[in-house]
Amino acid sequence: MALKLAVEEVGKDFLIPVIDRVSFGVEAGEFVCLLGPNGCGKTTLLRIVGGLEPATRGRVTLDGEPIVAGQPHQHKVGVVFQEDRLLPWLTLEQNVALVLKPLGLGAAERAAIARRYLKISGLVGFEDYHPARVSGGMRQRTAIARALAIEPDVLLMDEPFGALDAQNRRIMQNEVRRIWRETGRTILFVTHAIEEAVAVGTTLVMLSARPARIRELIRNDGRTDRVKLIDDLNTMIMEEV
Ligand SMILES: Nc1ncnc2c1ncn2[C@@H]1O[C@H](COP(=O)(O)OP(=O)(O)OP(=O)(O)O)[C@@H](O)[C@H]1O
Ligand SMILES: [Mg+2]
User: Fold this and answer.
1) Atom of ligand 1 at shortest distance to CA of 47?
2) Which residues are within 8 A (CB) of 179 and not within 5 positions of it... i.e. 6 or more apart?
3) Residue 118 sits in the same domain as residue 218
4) How far is it, in rounded angstroms, from Cα 131 to Cα 215?
5) Which CATH number covers residue 217?
6) What's the helix, strand, coil split of the chain in %, to 5?
7) Based on the domain organization, do 41 and 133 belong to the same domain?
8) Which residue owns the Cα nearest ligand 1 atom 25?
9) pLDDT in tens, 185-218
10) Domain stop point among 152, 173, 193
11) Which bound ligand lies closest to the C-alpha atom of 56?
């Protein structure tokens, strides 16, 4: 199968080298988790993949098309950040519908699509609420609905549940897994929580300490014992800190 997303020898230097050289491929429909110690360059790598930050070396292609920061491309990339980044003066539905405007859809169609993705995200009945009137988990669900509504070729998520309490975090991990199954989207998900990566990802990419290289790429197909996998990954990350 052709690769959906190819990261080839990608590196980044700010004042110091942050990402050395990182290569991995993602097939359509995969759920890839990027793991690594604090400050190793996970967010930077995700931003490069999304075309939000130029790479110093290497290249990223989405369905064979190069993604270069500042240059237009044909593909749609959905992004969910650690904070929900909703506009407080708009309702949840209006927040989702807003991102559909550049796609040239009419108002009725935008509203219908927004409602559909709010429903997939478990927010039926809350469409007309403003962000301040719903919980943190619900705001994060809205951010996910907004990213999905454009029907992205790839969905990038940067520690999307980092601001949630443990219980909501667990709920959202199950939700994102279900949404992934229902929509078949290709997901690249950054986390430094090992249990979270093992709970949601089909492929786990463990990065080394800065400057990041790939420390290990693991297929999380359920055949490896979960407890052992979490243990091994914890040992690995401790060695990198
Ligand atoms: N715009 C920038 N200019 C200069 N240095 C930067 C910039 N963005 C990130 N860095 C540096 O790059 C390194 C990696 O940052 P990055 O945010 O990608 O790490 P991370 O793995 O996402 O960390 P965390 O686990 O804390 O989220 C850090 O040392 C950071 O200071
Ligand atoms: Mg980060």
Assistant:
1) 18
2) 120, 121, 144, 148, 185
3) no
4) 39
5) 3.40.50.300
6) 35, 25, 40
7) no
8) 38
9) 999 999 989 999 999 999 999 999 999 999 999 9
10) 152
11) 1
